[in-house]
Protein: Xylose isomerase domain-containing protein TIM barrel
Amino acid sequence: MSAKPIKDLSKLCVHTITTKPWSLEEAAENYERVGVKGISVWRQYLGGRDIAASGERLRSHGLEIVSLVRGGFFPSVSSKTREQAIQDNLKAIEEAAALGAPMIVLVCGADPGQSLVKSREQIKDGIEKVLPFAIEHGVKLAIEPLHPMYADTRSAVNTMGQANDMAEAIGSDHVGVAADVYHLWWDPDLREELLRCGRNDNLYAFHICDWMCPTVDFLNDRGLMGEGCIDIPTIRGWAEEAGFSGFNEVEIFSDRHWAGDQKEFLDKIVESYYKS
Amino acid sequence: MSAKPIKDLSKLCVHTITTKPWSLEEAAENYERVGVKGISVWRQYLGGRDIAASGERLRSHGLEIVSLVRGGFFPSVSSKTREQAIQDNLKAIEEAAALGAPMIVLVCGADPGQSLVKSREQIKDGIEKVLPFAIEHGVKLAIEPLHPMYADTRSAVNTMGQANDMAEAIGSDHVGVAADVYHLWWDPDLREELLRCGRNDNLYAFHICDWMCPTVDFLNDRGLMGEGCIDIPTIRGWAEEAGFSGFNEVEIFSDRHWAGDQKEFLDKIVESYYKS
Structure:
């Protein structure tokens, strides 16, 4: 099944980290100006602000708040650090509720000092510990599988299959999966696992950007849609086949793009979005 | 099943690229001096040499030639480039036979200008085209799955599962798999897929090094065994459980280690090998 061609910006969401140099207010004004309809807010952009008022302000710019980014980082060899992670995730849930964000994206974490199996147990345990508080606050939790190159310190959940396994093992209508083409494009089981995710009503989010060839930095060299080698329309088609009808969230970390004029960059995001 | 503790160097093989600054002759002399028993030869080290005589010389240093590295790179959007790859692989087979190497490691390749599915078809087609020549020369072909971060240009085969699928689909006793902990350590299905590989007599090679935390370069920042976060003894245990009894091949690309004294580096390889 091919993706439906993108004809308007009604499903375009941009992550605040994508236009890293802008404050939350600058991002909101500029996103509205070019017709972006959704915003995913990285927590650092809320620093020193009245969070509820910030939420109101974003909505006054015609922006739907899609998610708060990011919770997670549950595993550690230190029980004290694990407890701190729980506390931080509870705080994130309060922030999401105050902001009016319906979902938190979880970068699950990993500790190179222990096995990936152990880290995965601690991730599941951490999610289950904060889940009642999330349900109480009406906030959903989206497990984001990260590319295997991040298995050392950022996430022990590295494929859609693993994220599906974990979401299904937890079995709550408040725990699902955020799928990002950057992390998942290489996986031969991706279509099948997206469909499985959809069948279980677990496909909560869809993130887009591109894989540069060559990629020169492990973190901050993502590309605009079309700059790299990911066949985004095909993967978006699979997400739609799986029943996903939410926002297409542009999440680009790029030293190269951040170094330039952010207004020009945002124009390019809109232009490349139509081809994604 | 735990790995058997390493008690001697009888199964230690070093890839010539590991001590990149040394010529083939310097590598052979130094490997012998510290007790290394196997050598895998990268093709560039044969440049300008009588290959059969080089093989004799390596053996005179007490070194068993484990593999020739590397063939592959079959996929391309260009049919001319694909044909050139076939010719180059035929040449590699001749080189392996002349050197007395029983196996060629295949870095299968990928072309970002086409789908991974297409690249995989071209890999299978390429292997099947050169296979009769390989059988005639008594040379085996080992498909090496590469880490998903190399799916853009280096290999469309990124997991043991995919490598097993391909080896089994080709179904020849001259086509198997080379397993490298650096590429595979993150995979939740690794044990199961190594066992499957062993059951089919397809586990041809086992490569070791370590994943640095953080890793600062996509290609040339691999670590000595123990420098990073890979649990090598556990994975080696799985390979042994799968029936593997060949050499443990040290294959480290490291600008950091290459910049230092190679004799000291080789001493560290031997030291860290006992812990791997």
